[in-house]
């Protein structure tokens, strides 16, 4: 029998068994868990279904088969989903993975992973895996017995799952409160007091400490590795060529950060082996506050993606300088074109003057709009006119299949976690696609 047909049959059977197992009490006992595991095949669809069961369903803590609880029986099939635990005399409190938010290869920085959890609006964790990549998860705390208790802050990573584990708590800036706080800021006349309140609001909304926020008035005041909030954001020039509003920027700045027009002195990364390299900065402006907390968080995630691409290109130039190669373009193609075509194109974009004039080319925008869309879609009201704007940007900014493929695959994996209502709404928009998403359904 064809593997795909068998996988479909297996998942259909598992769905029926899950429904029967939950019955009237809504709990799966050890005997029912054993039946689910026996019905599951070895295909990734069946294993994925069982993993979803561990995320969404409740298991009996007292029922056992062969000395194992229902949770342990399913874990033995799909692999443990426990990130950490606090030992307790009556059992333990475990932090279990609910959904993974990171791309297949993980995030390159803890900053990006934390932003992904923060934007989900749920409690989660970030973990540096053995390869050095950062993983982002939404999590739930599960007691192994009725009396088990503990605090998340006391937990350390379970042996073998990774090197560093950090917990991320959802932003306590609720949408209605956020709008009220923004309005209150406008009434504060003392600039020192206003900046202090602004820093608190931004930190609370973006899930970072206040020392990670820098209030600036123009690019010359930007600080590296901080979230720069530019109160001026270029004044009357804070619009794009097509009349859109500038919510945030990522800029490569040298010693002179501002040009004659008071805009960021945005530089291409030099391709030679001796010129001084610029640094990557991100900034968010007042227009991001006007759109509400989802717009602020989405803008932050969008700019973090650009900053990651710029930082990767800077690292590529540094590696080139250590090599015996004479030209960066040839070195870049030889190093990345086959093994990572997205990196090859992005490195080329950030080291070419013309691409900076075109907003760094469509590849980096494709990824940035994708992350922004996935982080804000479920939290944006269905009545919001701009709910699908980032998706349309991704479709219109046509990029090569080698670049688009990994992001579309990640997009489909993310969409599989949505409710049926949300997927239906998404498919209505995808049916209109004429570019990168033509023919894609979720």
| Coarse shape | globular
> Radius of gyration over alpha carbons?
24 Å
What structural class is derived from the secondary structure elements? Answer: alpha+beta
Query: What is the overall number of helices?
Result: 16
Task: Describe this entry's structure for a reader.
It contains 16 helices and 14 strands. By secondary structure, it is α+β, with helices and mostly antiparallel strands. The chain has four domains: about 80 residues, no CATH class; about 90 residues, no CATH class; about 150 residues, no CATH class; about 80 residues. Strands 9-5-6-8-7-10 form a six-stranded antiparallel sheet. Helix 1 packs parallel to helix 3, helix 13 packs antiparallel against helix 14 and helix 13 packs parallel to helix 15. The longest helix is centred in the last third of the chain and has 30 residues.
Key features of this structure:
single chain; 442 residues; alpha+beta; 6-stranded antiparallel beta sheet; 4-stranded mixed beta sheet; 16 helices; 14 strands; 45% helix; 15% strand; globular; disordered N terminus
Briefly say what this structure is.
This protein is α+β, with helices and mostly antiparallel strands. The chain has helices at residues 3-22, 30-39, 44-56, 70-78, 110-120, 175-186, 191-206, 286-290, 293-322, 328-336, 341-350, 353-357, 362-376, 389-396, 401-415, 420-430, and strands at 27-28, 58-59, 64-65, 68-69, 82-88, 91-100, 124-128, 134-143, 156-157, 164-168, 213-216, 227-230, 248-253, 279-284.
